[in-house]
Amino acid sequence: MILKEVKHYMLVILAGTAIFAHVAVDDSVSPMSLEEQEELKEEARDMFYHAYRAYMENAYPADELMPLSCKGRWKDPLNSRGDLDDTLGNFSLTLVDSLDTLVILGDLEEFETAVKLVIKDVSFDQDVIVSVFETNIRVLGGLLSAHILAEYFQQRDGIMPWYHGELLSLAKDLGYRLLPAFNTTTGIPHSRVNLRHGLKNMRLSAHQETCTACAGTMILEMASLSRLTGEPIFEQKAHKAMDGLWRIRHRSSDLMGTVLNVQSGDWVRRDSGVGAGIDSYYEYCLKAYILLGDEKYLGRFNKHYSAIMKYISQGPMLVDVHMHRPHTNSKNFMDALLAFWPGLQVLKGDIKPAVETHEMLYQIMQRHNLIPEAFTTDFHVHWGQHPLRPEFVESTYFLYKATNDPYYLEVGKSALKSLQKFARVPCGYATVKDVRTGGHDDRMDSFVLAETFKYLYLLFADPNDLLIDLDEFLFTTEAHLLPLSLSRNHNLTSFSLDEQHIDDMDGLNSEFARCCPNTLDLFPETVRKPLKNLVNGMCPRTMKRKLLASQFAAGNSEHLNLLKNMGIAVLSMADGRIQLVHTIASARSQADAKEGLLFMQEMLELSQSQKHLPDKSPLSVTFEKNGQTVSIAAGPAHFGKDLTGGNKVTAKVGVADPIRACGSLNNSDRLKGRIVVIQRGDCMFISKVRKAEEAGAVAAIVIDNTPGTSLVTSSMFAMSGDGKNDVTIPAVFLFHEDASELLKAIEENLGMEISITDGNSTGGRKQLVNVVNGKKTKKSNSEKLKNDFHATIERLLGGGEIIKIFQRNQSPNVQNELINLNSQKVNRIQSKEEISEWLIKFYEQVNVELMESNTSPPLDSEEGLINLKKLANKGDLPYQIVRILELLNTMNDILIRLRLLVTDKPNGWVKMYSEHIAEVKGITRKFEDCLTDLEDDIGKGVRPGYDAGKQIAINVKLKYAKLKRTFEIWNDLAKIFLEGDATAGRKGSIIVDSTQKENSSILHSAGIDEL
Asked: Where do the TM regions start and end (predicted)?
């Protein structure tokens, strides 16, 4: 959607915010001649057709063109690029995504041909896993836009008379195949779905993480599908997903995190920005209001926008922060996807910050020729790749349409010429591998044709050159066209785009009424002037880095000395891992301390990037020895070929020389076609495997260099990479002791054959044990903690603490009471299992968070309740949980005082009875208050900052009745002891017969198991 529609909506909904209607031209930039503008328009057209024809002639019907290989890229699990291939589905992605670009270019003949090809060749009935987000914006959006345009030209010009909604039928089929992803407790969709089987694949349904943008960029396409087909389910599901996201925003900051769990709604990554992982969610909040007219989305967008401008916008920069601590930056770099933001600000009507951020991005492009995938806050390259993204050109286009400033034509010209110079290859356009060094990757994404070339063409085109009036359309995040008239369509499959849907205002000329007055201080030149040389004028780093986190090798003595100078201590752990501890005061100098901080920050970022990689299943190393098959459970890698799903590699074994394979291999000629054995140490895992692959190895086995380590004593882990995807062979990790049998076999037969297989095929994945020596894994520390804690809870809730207290007492009355209680099995409270399970989950969750954050080691739990109290003081836990723990201790204190009364003043029961009854009742009321607070929190969402206990709060809601009953048991038990022993103290008898039956009945109804 371009300027006229922007003016209309912003004038109505954003009072006091000006859109430029007729802006004075920047005096510093001469207007571009019409001839040059026409030449650039035609050059942009040529760029599209150079890529489009290369795809059609060399790749179609594949999903994408590989411009260096000049052939098609299909969805192939055996040659996967990881998450990059989630966009592929063997449904001619590039052609579907490019359909409406052909209309923008005025090529209706090719558009008709392409539509026929899609109808003939594209099918979604395929056993492939796809990204719900990418398939929605690229394929579903492309089909809907092409359908709308086909019917429009059919009605207006009489062309394509044969077309009868086939593209809409395809879109509907695809929509239904995406719906299983929405089957979650929150309504927020899974990130991936199988087009044929939905979520029936266990591993697919088990993957419960998605990004905010992935879940929040569905509403435009899904609502359009519903309104075109008359089937409301698609729009309903998308609305529910948006509502689910809105509910889990941070209530204090109004910011969103980046990654969440679709079932629990918990945040996995709480860093917040406007770039990767969040970007198009904000975009669709505003555009959902514009397209659908639902004012709730405008309100949501305005809240988010205010928060972004308050916390994330820092001058022209947009820096990620923590959603729960918004004044603290979470990264020291920005990613290229944020370049869409100035365009969205134009749509909102906030021109000044749009000009500022766009100017910063332009200066970065001028410094590096192309905008790198990520750049630091002092504008150095962080990630050097440039995949020909459209966001910067998109914002340039919208700023030009809003301001009519020829400066933006010059910006567009620079972008166009850079693409021609650095990305054009004989067979299309290729991703630039690194803006600093050049070179290409064999990749051309479909968005290059769907968006990048489309916006370049529109920037230089005159509106009269276009076959449609863009003022009647809204651009989706993939630059597909959806008509604004959809806001009035609910059950129609066709409509007119010719209606005048913006009424004249008080008889004024419509065009004039839709314009806002100029404001001199908002002129782009006035805004840009203070930013001149923002990037090039930035002081360069004065510190030359001595060691990057990605270069660090724990066995390198030089690296260890450098870290020591930075104040970083390297501690070796029992399982062979290392722990880094930074102490600024220990650094050799202030500069070294600063570099130490940077090193630790990089190491944390590297750790976080590995943490959010997909889960890897254990593998197995299998070989024959003495006529028997031996299998050893092995750890997988976050790089190289994936062997899950029954795949395996079998070859003869080879041993690297030198054994640690951190440099050139002396015996590379003897390793070709073999599975190479390597020892851990001195360099990164992936560096070793890379050397093995260079020598021609088909797989690698890395063996731990710490003696005695095994699955019995250590936890399985997946070897990490370095962010590069250049290793293609599989690799596994074996602990030292587990590998001993393999090493003995190799000594006996150096030419032996071994296999690496999926752990499922050998039971290794299920058992996670070393089947060579038959030893099963000992209970982990966390398992022991859980058992200890369970015992504590069992004593506490089952009467064990009461019995323990009274066992110290020699009073005959109390001893007899104890015998009576034991005979009734009072310590077998049925509902103790419920609260025990609840608290154990709580304990485990906190312990895992502590271990993951490395803030402290897992706490010893001989006294589970006490240590749970310690944990409560270390994290952001629900206040009510802590109060409940305090009340449990208070109840324990009361019972201790009762014991003292029995010991010291056996005749004092009558005198103290009423006082203690009142105290017990007070405790009971406090329990009720805690439960009420918890239920209130559940009803309105867990309070901000208490995410660590959120899952527990959900469990409480489900088990509220049983918890309440359990706490009532406390009251009943206390009454039994108070009343029973008070009576015994008065009458001198063991227990009053008239009360025994009553007490037994009370205990039974409260859930006592009388075995």
From this structure: none
Instruction: With respect to residue 516, please indicate whether it lies within any of the assigned structural domains.
Output: yes
List 279, 335, 356, 478, catalytic entry: 279
- Indicate if the alpha-carbon torsion angle 304, 305, 311, 312 is positive or negative: positive
Token duo for residue 866: 């006490």
Q: From the centroid of its chain, how far is CA 655? A: 39
Q: pLDDT tens for residues 71-80?
A: 999 988 777 7
Distance from C-alpha of 157 to C-alpha of 788, rounded to nearest angstrom: 79
Catalytic annotation on 472? no
Let me know: does 781 contact 858? Beta carbons within 8 Å: yes
Regarding whether 391 and 516 lie in a shared domain, the answer is yes
The 10s digit of each residue's pLDDT in 626-643 is 778 888 888 888 788 887
373 is catalytic: yes
103-to-4, 116, 458, 609, 624 alpha-carbon distances in Å: 21, 15, 12, 41, 64
Q: Are residues 589 and 637 in the same domain?
A: no
The residue ranges of DSSP E strands in 567-618, in sequence order, are 568-572, 578-582
- In which residue are the tokens 């110290």 written? 808
Residue 890 is assigned to a ligand binding site: no
Tokens of residue 199, six digits: 């979520």
State both tokens at 323.
Answer: 């959603």
Q: Do 61 and 153 belong together in one domain?
A: yes
> What is the Cα–Cα distance from 783 to 777, expressed in whole angstroms?
11
Length of the chain: 1011
Residue 603 lies in a domain: no
Please tell me the distance from the alpha carbon of residue 700 to that of residue 730, in angstroms, as a whole number: 7
Edge-to-edge order in the sheet of strand 619-625: 628-634, 619-625, 753-758, 648-655, 675-679, 699-703, 731-734
Q: Are 830 and 895 members of one domain? A: yes
Distance CA 1008, CA 1000 (A): 9
Name the residue type at position 710: S
Pair (925, 954) in one structural domain: yes
Residue 604 located in a structural domain: no
CB-CB neighbours of 306 under 10 Å: 11
Alpha carbons 726 and 639: distance in angstroms, whole number: 9
Rounded-to-integer distance, Cα 142 and Cα 339, Å:
23
Of 86, 320, 335, 391, which residue is the catalytic one? 391
Q: What is the residue type of 164? A: H
Across the chain, which has 1011 residues, the per-10-residue mean pLDDT values are 39 33 47 94 97 97 96 84 84 97 97 97 94 97 97 94 97 97 95 92 80 97 96 96 96 94 93 94 97 95 96 92 90 92 95 94 94 91 94 97 94 96 96 91 96 98 94 96 83 40 37 42 59 57 66 72 86 64 81 82 68 61 84 85 79 87 84 90 85 91 84 73 78 87 80 80 35 36 44 41 37 44 38 46 46 39 39 40 50 49 44 50 56 52 42 45 45 46 32 29 29 18
User: How far apart (Å, rounded) are the C-alpha atoms in residues 818 and 132?
Assistant: 63
What is the C-alpha to C-alpha distance for residues 729 and 700, in angstroms, rounded to an integer? 8
Separation CA 65–CA 67 (nearest Å): 6
Max Cα–Cα distance, the chain, nearest Å: 114
At 662 the pLDDT is 85
Strand partners for 322: 271, 325
Alpha helix positions (H), 308-390: 341-348, 351-368
Q: What are the structure tokens assigned to 928, written together?
A: 């009720």
How many structural domains does the chain have? 4
CB 527 within 8 A of CB 352: yes
Say which of 26, 86, 100, 134 is annotated catalytic. 134
Set 373, 478, 722, 937: catalytic member: 373
